[in-house]
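Reviewers of the previous submission asked for a worked example of the structure-prediction workflow described in the proposal, so we include one complete record here. The input consisted solely of the amino acid sequence. No template or homolog information was supplied to the procedure at any stage.
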Amino acid sequence: MGSPLSPVLADLFMEEFEQTALFSADLKPSVWIRYVDDTFVVWPHSPQDLQLFLQHLNSQHNDIQFTMEKEQHGRIAFLDVEVSRLPDGTLSRTVYRKPTHTDRYLNNWSFHHPSIKASVNRTLVRRAYNICDQDHLEPELHHISTALQRKNTGFTISDIWRPILNPS
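From that input alone, the workflow returned the following structure tokens.
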């Protein structure tokens, strides 16, 4: 096991690293958002300049190496959010699931504490409300309902719909 201080120290190191690397870069991103070791960047310059920026980041420290994933067909995933670029230039958001995602959740017939079982659907619904824009919220809630009914999870219709109808 690592030290309980490891995440804090890593975050402090990365903050200093980012400040130094971004300050010394010739061209800068218009958006830079980091969560632990994932970074979301909006690059307003050319693709060639983006490659130079990546090389600049990777030259800052021998043990820190960035990789890059670019948007495909106007979409990119960051954590559990799929961000899409719309034709008018605005962005939309919905829940991202990896291609290997199976919609497998804790079974309501398991011997876990009732509060843990109740939190399964409530957490999925809360995530939908927090991530999805208005255009994607209803399809996401439908996906949650369908997944919990279809997978023989033991959740009743009222278990599934209670947090959807009364989000907190």
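The radius of gyration is 20 Å. We consider this example representative of the routine output the project will generate in years two and three.
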